[in-house]
Amino acid sequence: QVQLVESGGGLVQAGGSLRLSCAVSGRAFSSYGMAWFRQAPGKEREFVAAMPWSDGKTAYADSVKGRFTISRDNAKNTVYLHMNSLKPEDAAVYYCAARKITLDPDPRTRYDYWGQGTQVTVSS
Questions:
Q1: Among residues 119, 95, 94, 114, which one has the least CA distance to residue 32?
Q2: How far apart are CA 92 and CA 115, in angstroms?
Q3: What percent of the chain has pLDDT over 70?
């Protein structure tokens, strides 16, 4: 079993910044690709950002590209999502996800483990 625990959410005004953290259990953290998804009330879960491959390259949704940055610290078994220039439409529950490293070129799929989520609220 792999367990993921998100933290760092909160209430910010439009234009503000937050950093989300995801702590991952287990000894094989470096064997997993990581991603962030989000879900707003009444909407489907959507992809946000990922570092899903062993080369460390990243992928982002068009809606957050240039504003959000995903990073990881293997020594701390932690993944981060730095969010800048937040907009009201960014408000959602943000989920951390993990998958085994594969050669699948699609960064949005094959995530088998999920955290409980952390709430991000953006006021205008």
A1: 114
A2: 14
A3: 100
Tell which residue, 1, 17, 79, 33, has the closest CA to residue 9: 17
Q: What's the Rg (C-alpha) of the chain?
A: 14
Distance set, CA 2 to CA 31, 45, 64, 85 (Å): 12, 21, 27, 32
Residues 83 and 94 sit within 8 Å (Cβ to Cβ):
no
How would you list the strands of the sheet with 78-83, edge to edge? 4-7, 18-24, 78-83, 68-73
Of the candidates 52, 86, 94, which has an alpha carbon nearest to the alpha carbon of residue 72? Answer: 52
Q: How confident is the model at residue 122, as a pLDDT?
A: 98
The pLDDT tens digits of the residues spanning 60-119 come to 999 999 999 999 998 899 999 999 999 999 999 999 999 998 888 899 999 999 999 999
Kind plus residue range of the DSSP H or E element containing 12: strand 10-13
Q: What are the φ/ψ torsions at residue 21 (nearest 5 degrees)?
A: -125, 150
Are the C-beta atoms of residues 110 and 101 closer than 8 Å to each other? no
